[in-house]
Hints:
Elements: E1 2-5, H1 11-21, H2 28-35, E2 40-47, E3 50-60, E4 63-71, H3 80-94, E5 99-105, H4 109-117, E6 121-130, E7 133-140, H5 146-158
Parallel strand pairs: 4-5
Antiparallel strand pairs: 1-2, 2-3, 3-4, 5-7, 6-7
Amino acid sequence: MTIRTMxxxxxxxVATLEREIYPEPWSARIFFDELAQSNRTYIVVxxxxxxxxxxxxxxxxxxxxxTTLAVVPGFRRMRLGTRILLALVEKALAGGARHxxxxxxxxxTDAQKLYERFGFGPVGKRKGYYAGEDAIVMWALDVDADEYxxxxxxxxxxxxxxxx
Length: 164
């Protein structure tokens, strides 16, 4: 299993997964447009040539916004979401991020727990953000601090990766 940068050739498969996972999916065009932006990074998790998950991050000054994170339903609870989020956070930090933010469906408690493990906390709500469903806005502050680096080291070790 490998995590690598998403390429334009991955977009058709990612867009197909997006339609299977989300009720209001991004189109292939949106992914192509996102890949063309210099302040965005998208990654995929690939196993035996099959994309099992993907995610993206957008860097604006010292804030990084997790734009999307998805894992194929049959491969959930295998820590792929943790691996994807860790890779996105590492990309954000390498780009100079000091703070991280995202929106998550109010009903998606599994994702909220994942984000909380990465130090995200709820700060507000966006009414009707997802086709009539509210989003919870979450932030992780001061991710460039040593304390946050320690949290990432713990996550890496839990995944069997050496601490950076």
